[in-house]
Write the C-alpha cells for this entry.
Amino acid sequence: MRKDIELLIELDRLEDKIIRLKEIFKDIPEKKDVLQQKVQEAEEDLEVELENYEEQKSEISYLQDELNEINEEIATVQKQILQDTSKGKNVKSLEDNLFQLKRSKNVKEEEISASHSLLKDTEDVVNEVRDDFNSIKKEAEQFFSEIKEREGDFDSQVKEIEEFKAHILSKLGEIENGKELKTLYGQISEAFPGGVVAKVEYDSCSRCFMQITPQVLNELQRESGDEYSGGRVIRCASCSCILYYDANNQ
Ligand SMILES: [Zn+2]
C-alpha cells in the first residue's frame, strides 16, 4: 500500500471519528433547553400557587378582623343593655341591634370557615406543585452534571483526535508531494465531509460507484505499491475523491 494513501486513509478515519462524536452530542443543546424550560415553567406554577395561598391567607385575616370588630360591638351593646336595663330604660332597639350583630357574626364565621377549607385545598395544591417542581429540578440537575462530565469527555476526545490528525499531517508533509496532498486534502474534505479517499472495488469508485476506465484501473494497480508514495494522485472523475487500489483487499 502506498504510504501517502495510507496516511490519507488515516486522516479520513480520524475525521470520521470526529463526525460520529459530534453526531452523538448534537441533540444535547436542545435537550438542555427543553429541561431548562420545564424547570422554569414548574417554578412559575409554584409561584402562582404560593401567591394564591398568600392571598387567601390575608383574606382570612381580613375576615377575622371584621369578626373581632363585630364581637367588640356585641360586647359594647350587651354592656349597654345591662346598664340601661338596670336604669329601667327601654332596650328594645338595642336588642334589635344585638340580634342583627349576632346574625352578622354567624355569617362572618361561616365565611371564615369556608375560607379555611378553601385554604386547605390550596395548601394541598401548593404541596403537589412544589413536589413536581422539586422532582423536575432534581432531574435537570442530574442531567446537567452528567452532561458536564460527558462534554468534558467529548472535548478531550476531540482534542486527542485533532492532535493525532496534526501528527499524521506532519508525516504527510515529509512525503515528496506532501504539501500538494495536504492542500488537496483540505480542498476535498471541505467539499465532501464524508471522506477524501475512496477505494476501488469491482472496478468502481466505492464512494460514488462510478465505473473506472480500464486504463485508470491499470495505472492504479500498477502504482499501488509503497514505492509509488509521493507519485501521481488519481482522482475519481465523478466525485473527485482520491482513488486507491488495495491489492490485498479486493
Ligand atoms: Zn467517485
Q: What stands out?
A: The chain has a mean pLDDT of 92. DSSP finds five helices and three strands in the chain.
